[in-house]
Amino acid sequence: MRDFDFLEPASAAEASRMLLDEPEESRLIAGGTALMLGMRQRMLSPRRLISLGRLEALRGIDFDAKEGLRIGALTRHAELAADPAVQTHYPMLASMAARVANPQVRNQGTLGGNLCYADPATDPPGCLMALDAQVVIQGPDGERRLTIEAFLVDYYTTALEPGELITEIRLPPPAEGDRGHYARHLRTAAEHRPLVNLAAWVRQRGHGCEAARLVVGASTVVPTRVPQAEAYLMAHPPSEATVDATAELIASGITPLSDARGSAAYRREMVRVIARRSLAHLFALPLE
Amino acid sequence: MSEHRIEVIINGEPVTARVPARRLLSDFLRDDLGLTGTKRGCETGICGACSVMVDGRLVKSCLSLAVQADGQPIDTIEGLADGETLHPIQECFINGGGLQCGYCTPGFVMATCALLAANPRPTTDEIRQALNGNLCRCTGYTQIVESIHHAAEKLHGN
């Protein structure tokens, strides 16, 4: 690991100014679990690390029935998984957070750091996209909000401009009939990074779905919603046939990655399999 | 390269030190303080041999900077035994054969401390989940899991 300076701003505004001083040479560090790996392998060699560790304003989780959920960007995955309000009102999110990486990384890695690193082979972004989350961004010109769709741009690339950082993640309040299910596929039980994941969220009304957000992650460069599958699911009453057809539409609606971890064909098939199981689970349907 | 004065509490003892920004927590413990019970294994965040507790949270010290731990208590494998008397978890690993070469063992014992503090009587499945961040290339894990069951019984009864 190359030498660097370690700076500890006292506010998000100061962190933003420090980032702007030398934008090419600076990186933010939150938990640091991913950043340390990148720096130790010399894929990244920033000369300045700007630590968010002292920014208490970026911590904490608050729920309000009208406003929804606010998750401070420095919230660790383990804290998200254990939070009673998250478990009660967004069980899909708690269940996802309980499975990220491994226990040690969940105790140190943060949700904001995970989103800013924008590694495709991870869990939180797709789940947050299915829950219609927004990131709150602080920059030199004030604050702005982006959806996860707008925030994640490409491999390890976000929409953050120089001097910007995420301060919190916001989720809309849950409504009657909201249900979600997060599923992931690992090549072996010992792996820590998902090969494929699917976040399925629906708002049920009577026998049908009034809204649906179906997001494939880890097998696409950035998490991908599949609108044609969502439309099909909303147009058909839940049944085994609907589940099968929706799973097919999800699998055929993405452009899977193909690399040493899995071919495009294998990933597409795994997407279909976990989509079918997830949707059946969501509608409490028995599967063959 | 910046240098930092850090104050930490290692196994209950206050320690003040000067560290360069790039000093990893694992290197700080081993090379600066001589606490070599914490092992460097894969050095890529996979194996968990470097696991320690920072402010009560189990973390991988090869993925942490020493400066990040400033102001916090750190517990390592050296803090478990009471003089010559081993901690019940250590005893159970020895008696249950929960190790072979022993290199990964400090990490497993620290992971077990974290697990049993949060969940005094874990199921086998919960034990296996809690060990997901630790690798052992010798034992095949069966006797590690059994040792942890014994430790839970010993510490927290039936």
From TrEMBL, chain A:
UniProt cross-references to Gene3D superfamilies, sorted A to Z: 3.30.465.10, CO dehydrogenase flavoprotein, C-terminal domain, Uridine Diphospho-n-acetylenolpyruvylglucosamine Reductase, domain 2
Occurrences of domain FAD-binding PCMH-type (ranges): 1-176
InterPro entries referenced in this protein's UniProt entry, alphabetically: CO_DH_flav_C, CO_DH_flav_C_dom_sf, Diverse_Substr_Oxidored, FAD-bd_PCMH, FAD-bd_PCMH-like_sf, FAD-bd_PCMH_sub1, FAD-bd_PCMH_sub2, Mopterin_DH_FAD-bd
Cited Pfam families: CO_deh_flav_C, FAD_binding_5
Superkingdom, taxonomy of origin: Bacteria
Keyword annotations: FAD, Flavoprotein, Oxidoreductase
PANTHER family: XANTHINE DEHYDROGENASE SUBUNIT C-RELATED
Protein's name in the database: Xanthine dehydrogenase family protein subunit M
From TrEMBL, chain B:
Domain (2Fe-2S ferredoxin-type) ranges: 4-80
Superkingdom field: Bacteria
Protein known as: (2Fe-2S)-binding protein
Keyword presence, Cytoplasm: no
Keyword vocabulary terms for this entry: 2Fe-2S, Iron, Iron-sulfur, Metal-binding, Oxidoreductase
Gene3D superfamilies: 3.10.20.30, [2Fe-2S]-binding domain
Pfam families, A to Z: Fer2 (PF00111), Fer2_2 (PF01799)
InterPro entries documented for this protein: 2Fe-2S-bd, 2Fe-2S-bd_dom_sf, 2Fe-2S_ferredoxin-like_sf, 2Fe-2S_ferredoxin-type, 2Fe2S_fd_BS, Beta-grasp_dom_sf, Diverse_Oxidoreductases
Keyword Nucleotidyltransferase in annotation: no
